[in-house]
Amino acid sequence: MEQPGVGRINSNENENASEKKKMSEEFESNTIMESLIDMPLATLDIKEEFGITDVAHKNKESSKGNEQVRKDKRKKRKKKDYQPNYFLSIPITNKEITTGIKKLQNAIIEQDKRLAKTMSRDGSFHITLLVMQLLNEDEVNIGIDTLLELKPLIEEILQGKHLTLPFQGVDTFESQVGFVKLEEGDHIKQLLEIAEVAKRTFQEKGILAGEDRSYNPHLTFMKLSKASWLRKKGVKKINPKLYEKFINHRFGEEMVYRIDLCSMLKEKQSNGYYHCDSSVVIGL
């Protein structure tokens, strides 16, 4: 027989527990958002090649109803709070390319040693395919599964052929970001198609992904934002004379074989590579 008042006490305890859980979730979300706001996007640096094959990651089992609720909540997230903290990366591992970039960087540093702090780290060269916001473990798991779903869609675009990216020449974005250019050709069209299908696939899962500006694939080798103190020293732009000897330099070709889902915030590996939650191998 139920004791008087017990039902009311249990009900209050459940309400208190539910309220604490809600407060905890709100605190966690706010803390993550504060970290994201403080982190500049200019810190994207990825590493040299390391062997990874497709890694499957299972989501926690949940009902379709709960999944739809979570998806609706993600879609309702205010766009003003959108600060990417994950990205899809195509690593650049061809030694001819990375050696050429290192020579370019050294040539610039020889002319102005202060610019050493603006250079991308050795082995960090990559092309960003898509940026996104994954705020918790559940969303990271969805991101991992979505990347695996993306693999056959990418291979359908490639139609059994390898995607080879030739790099030649140097340019800047508004004299703030130095990058090695992709040569013109069908490979750019395929890369744009892959980026678009990736964006659409992640957004269909309720993930905030992509940017307002159009996708412009590039291989960054320096950013003035890495050393903001240079502005006080009068260095506000990248002088074209610093890289004029490489303006038409042919750096080499990269065969795309892997796409990584990387975190901008999690602790980097000892070799400088960003934390990688999952990877897929393309065309094998």
TrEMBL record:
<dbReference type="Pfam" id="PF10469">
    <property type="entry name" value="AKAP7_NLS"/>
</dbReference>
<feature type="region of interest" description="Disordered">
    <location>
        <begin position="1"/>
        <end position="27"/>
    </location>
</feature>
<feature type="compositionally biased region" description="Basic residues">
    <location>
        <begin position="71"/>
        <end position="80"/>
    </location>
</feature>
<dbReference type="InterPro" id="IPR009097">
    <property type="entry name" value="Cyclic_Pdiesterase"/>
</dbReference>
<feature type="domain" description="A-kinase anchor protein 7-like phosphoesterase">
    <location>
        <begin position="84"/>
        <end position="280"/>
    </location>
</feature>
<protein>
    <submittedName>
        <fullName>A-kinase anchoring protein 7 isoform X7</fullName>
    </submittedName>
</protein>
<dbReference type="InterPro" id="IPR052641">
    <property type="entry name" value="AKAP7_isoform_gamma"/>
</dbReference>
<feature type="region of interest" description="Disordered">
    <location>
        <begin position="55"/>
        <end position="80"/>
    </location>
</feature>
<feature type="compositionally biased region" description="Basic and acidic residues">
    <location>
        <begin position="55"/>
        <end position="70"/>
    </location>
</feature>
<dbReference type="InterPro" id="IPR019510">
    <property type="entry name" value="AKAP7-like_phosphoesterase"/>
</dbReference>
